[in-house]
Each structure stands twice: as C-alpha cells, then as structure tokens.
Amino acid sequence: MQGWIEGFQESIDFIEKNLTDELDIEVIASKAALSPFYYQRIFGALCGVTVGEYIRARRMTLAAQELSRQDVKVIDVAVKYGYDSPDSFTKAFQKFHGITPLQAKDPGAPLRSFAPLHIKITMEGGTMLDYRIVKKAPFTIVGVKRPFNSDTSYQEIPKFWDELLAQGEKRPIMGTFGVCLDMKGKEFDYWIADLYFPWEKIPEGCETRMIPESEWAEFPCTMENLQETNTKIWSEWLPTLKGYSLAGEYDIEVYLPPQEGSSEMSVEIWVPLKKD
Q1: Which of 30, 139, 176, 210 has the fewest CB atoms within 10 Å, i.e. the most exposed one?
Q2: 3-class SS at 149?
Q3: Rounded Cα–Cα distance for residues 204 and 197 (Å)
C-alpha cells in the first residue's frame, strides 16, 4: 500500500478541481488506485462524511462565497454547481447554510464554510489493534438483501436490521453476517445472512451467495467499539500494510453469540486481502 495516502489526496484534489463538473465515483476512486467500493468505505472512515456529502458541502461553500461577493444571479450559480432548478438549489442551500441564496447576497449574512480536506497520517503514540490473517476456503451465505446508496447507508442499514429483528423467532435467518457486495458506483447490496449448507432448505424470501476463497484480515471487537475499530482499520492499519493489498468487492461483519461468562456479543470485521 505504498503511496496510498498520496493517492488518496490526489483524488481529493481532483474533486476540488472539478466541483463545477459532473463527478463520477469510478473516476474519483481511480485517482487513489482503489475500487469505488473501498474508496467510499475508506473515505467515510477517514473523513467522517461520505463522498457525496463532501462534494455537496464544498459546492455549497463555494456557491455561498460567489453569491456574497459577486453580482450574480441565483440561477447561474445553481447551474454552475450542478442543480437543474432554482428550487432544488435553494433547498440544498438552505439546508446547509440555514438561509436562502437570496439572503446570502445581503451584507453580513451568516454563512457556513466547509474547508477542503487534506489527508495526513500523524504519529501521536501507538494504539493497539488486534488482528489475524487467515486463509479461508469458499463459503456460501444465505440471507436477505436490499440495495443501498453509500450516501445514506449508515442511516438506512440499521433500519434494515431493526425490521428483521422485529420478526423475533419468525425471522428466516439469525443474522450472523452483515455483508456489503456488488458495488456499482454509489449503489451496493447489503446482505443480512447466515452460513449456508447445501443440505439445508433455503428459507422463503432468502437467497444464497458464494464468497470466494481468500485470505482475510480478521479484527475482533465488540458492538461498543465497532465504529472505532472500523476507523482504525482504514486510517491506521491499512496505510501501513505491507505485503498485501485489498481484494474483492466486499467486506463482512460477523456477529457472534456471547462467550462463556460474558453477556456481550462478540463482533469481527473481515477484510479480504491478496498478497502483493
């Protein structure tokens, strides 16, 4: 993963240079030599916002600056930053700034600013992150899937889980795995699944999917520190990874029953790897 941080910064610089153009996630991710799937996962962990949120925030920042400093029409600024109508631009602008584009033209109008991102990895004392790399044979999952958009998935996927768990003992699967698969741009499928064995009947409403053989980095954690572990994987562990690169277009969270003597569910994050 040599030069990984530099490549990621290059992708952000590309966004900044093309904020008035249509931006494609495939092209953005290619600047960092990553697939769109992993680029969006890493961007969220490093930056705390999705790629789409970052682009919208930067466009709203620049749009406000133009409206407050120049004698320009709202419709011209709206079109410049990718909005088809003044109404859609006004709604987005008001959501970000709390005032309308017309009000932004008034002297002293209160505006918000979202600065360009600059990715840096700083050493501020060592932190411990347990993991192991293991090779796994192909395995098959069985479960329910639903399409999601990366911009809203953090809010919507928990609702998907709530719907399933609300069925109680009537739910078709237990929910051992949470799997992100088949990223197409910003769209991907999320599976709630269990391990499938060929002699078992596929529950109604469920599908199966084979996960190919791979080496996996497994990170044990708990529900409490799941997000913290995710952030450490992408911001601390990955940039210093040597001898391996990311593989596949998926990642998996594994939810295990509490160990003996504990009431807390165990969780593992699995990231597929390939040797360089």
Answers
A1: 210
A2: strand
A3: 16
Contact 248, 183 (CB under 8 A): no
Assess contact for 239 and 181: CB atoms under 8 A: no
pTM: 0.77
Answer with the residue of higher pLDDT: 259 or 158. 158
Q: pLDDT: is 147 or 276 the higher one?
A: 147
Cα Rg of the chain (Å, integer):
22
Q: What domains lie within the chain, and their CATH numbers?
A: 4-104 (1.10.10.60), 132-275 (3.20.80.10)
Q: Distance (Å, rounded) from C-alpha 249 to C-alpha 180?
A: 8
Q: Taking 90 as the threshold, does the pLDDT of residue 249 lie above it?
A: no
Q: Using CA atoms, how far apart are residues 79 and 92, in angstroms rounded to an integer?
A: 13
Residue 5: the pLDDT is 75
DSSP per position, 66-114: HHHHS---HHHHHHHTT-SSHHHHHHHHHHHHSS-HHHHTSTT------
Return the structure tokens found at 203. 């529950």
Mean of pLDDT over the chain: 86
The dihedral built from the CA positions of residue 44, 33, 178 and 262, taken in this order, carries a sign that is: negative
Block residue for tokens 């080496």: 215
Among residues 58, 88, 86, which one has the least CA distance to residue 72? 86
